[in-house]
Write a structure and sequence with these properties.
single chain; mainly alpha; Rhopdopsin 7-helix transmembrane proteins; two-stranded antiparallel ribbon; 2 strands; sensory transduction; OR51/52/56-like; olfaction; Olfactory receptor
Amino acid sequence: MRNSSTNDTGSPLFTLTGLPGLEDSQHWMFLLLGVLYTVSIVGNSLILFIVKEEQSLHQPMYYFLSLLSINDLGASLSTLPSVLATFCFHTKKITFDTCMAQMFFIHFFSFTESGILLAMSFDRYVAICNPLKYPTILTDTRVAQMSLSIGFRSFCVVFPLPFLLKRLPFCKANILSHAYCLYPDVIHLPCGDITFNSIFGLCVIISTFVLDSVLILVSYILILRSVLAIASQGERLKTLNTCVSHICAVLIFYVPMLGVSMVHRYGRYAPPYVYTLMSLVYLFVPPMLNPVIYSIKTKEIHRRLIRLFSGTKL
């Protein structure tokens, strides 16, 4: 008899998890996720449309914002198929290759978002600390080079992950903790030695999330030092206000990530659905909130949105 954890070709099958212990409430979760998906896709699409159509927004800061919106769209669409299958159609089996493909894209967009936030902090640093050199430092060519570098780095650190998992034997039930495939979740399922995989994963985290967050912190320390040197309090507040949207984007990306890590490390006695809810917040909230924050806090985008929906010129 064929093992339920493998398919006809002998390749491992994984079982996705909805909300353990809250199976009767999963239809409500699907409605909530549907709202988050809708806001994320519509909001980020509007940001891209506005930046494309508004000539005054063809600046480095808004190019990075467009890149962030594209990345958020990719992050949302990479989780959509399995979440839809799990919560709506109750189809919980996923093949190894499909799982690896989804895992690749989820982590690729996650690492890319971290790199984009770092690039945006550099943009704010140059704009505030070296405003006269801003046009010569952040040229269109430089922005394109930075964007390609961010994507290339993300690809290089994520590309080995599926192959490192493929070489390991899977002989258990292969039940995942979420409605999608994540490397920290899948890595606990193989029967073989995962020491190298764990070390490689730790190196990836340090060279991406940890390094990016430290550099973002350093850039804001330098920005704050430069702002405090401004004599006028009104000018200080005006300058800091240009960073509010980016600071919010950084917080809603890194704080849920830290929360997921804390829950996995110290929340061993927490109900199983807590792990799932924290991961949902980490993956779904940033793509939904980023366009909302930038639409509210960025005057140029806010005005264009009003013009778009009211049909009048300001």
